[in-house]
Amino acid sequence: DAGVIQSPRHEVTEMGQEVTLRCKPISGHDYLFWYRQTMMRGLELLIYFNNNVPIDDSGMPEDRFSAKMPNASFSTLKIQPSEPRDSAVYFCASRGLAGGYNEQFFGPGTRLTVL
Amino acid sequence: DQQVKQNSPSLSVQEGRISILNCDYTNSMFDYFLWYKKYPAEGPTFLISISSIKDKNEDGRFTVFLNKSAKHLSLHIVPSQPGDSAVYFCAASSLSGNQFYFGTGTSLTVIP
After folding, report:
1. Cα A89 from Cα A113, distance rounded (Å)
2. For B9-48, how does the pLDDT look when each residue is reduced to its tens digit (9 = 90+)?
3. Pick from B45, B49, B99: which is nearest to A102 by CB?
4. Which of A15, A45, B20, B36 is the most exposed place for a label (fewest CB within 10 A)?
């Protein structure tokens, strides 16, 4: 398996623009998580899905953030409009029975810079 | 509010010596704890875990110790190697829960 795949790896955009981050979880995993990494807060959970259904989005900072999982193999995190304070590394992770539900497998992350 | 805290942002250790990374948590419902390791430009990878029924778990050079009464865990790396230089994240969960709560990370540098 290729592991969790994220795209793009780097994104530079201007304030006010829409940003879409993409994630393909490990095949067979039924949980998908979106995290944001910052120096101040470390790895911060934004939202997670179970069987494509959003379970907890309490970590989504503002209405500018939205996430979808239209099928078991694809999820998006959208920021509209983007702001400089959204600059961070965004990780997607998946978890499933194959991993014993005891660990989350992370993608390589998307480094977002909002100018 | 940060439920998992790593109060040391960085740590430097000589090669061959012991590295000790510390983590504190506040939620007494947590009963499963993990350490993740992260290299630059990569995602975190699982390193070692421990459940609350144990106070120690060992895997090669890596040992995690859990002190439930103090709500504290630590990761020991013996002997430390330059390839261990990375950011280490502590995480906590309940076995019945789905969320992992991560700390802010400790950047370990092992000096050759």
Report:
1. 9
2. 999 999 999 999 999 999 999 999 999 999 999 999 999 9
3. B49
4. A15
Q: Phi/psi of residue B65, each to 5°?
A: -115, 140
Inter-chain contact B98–A31, Cβ cutoff 8 Å?
yes
The DSSP code sequence of chain B is --SEE---SEEEEETTS-EEEEEEE--TT--EEEEEEE-TTS--EEEEEEETT-SEEEETTEEEEEETTTTEEEEEESS--GGG-EEEEEEEE-TT----EE---EEEEEE-
Residues of A with CB under 8 A from a CB of B: 4, 31, 33, 35, 39-45, 48, 50, 55-56, 91, 93, 95, 102-109
B77 part of contact set with chain A, CB < 8 Å: no
Nearest CA in chain B to A49: B98
| Straight-line distance from the first to the last Cα atom of chain A, in angstroms, rounded to the nearest whole number | 36
pLDDT, average across residues B68-80 = 97
Which residue from A minimizes the CA distance to B1?
A: A41
Residue length, chain B? 112
Q: Which of A29-33, A49-53, B95-99 has the lowest mean pLDDT?
A: B95-99
Beta bridge partners of B73: B23, B66
Contact A86, A79 (CB under 8 A): yes
Q: Which candidate from A39, A50, A108 shows the least CB-CB separation from B43?
A: A108
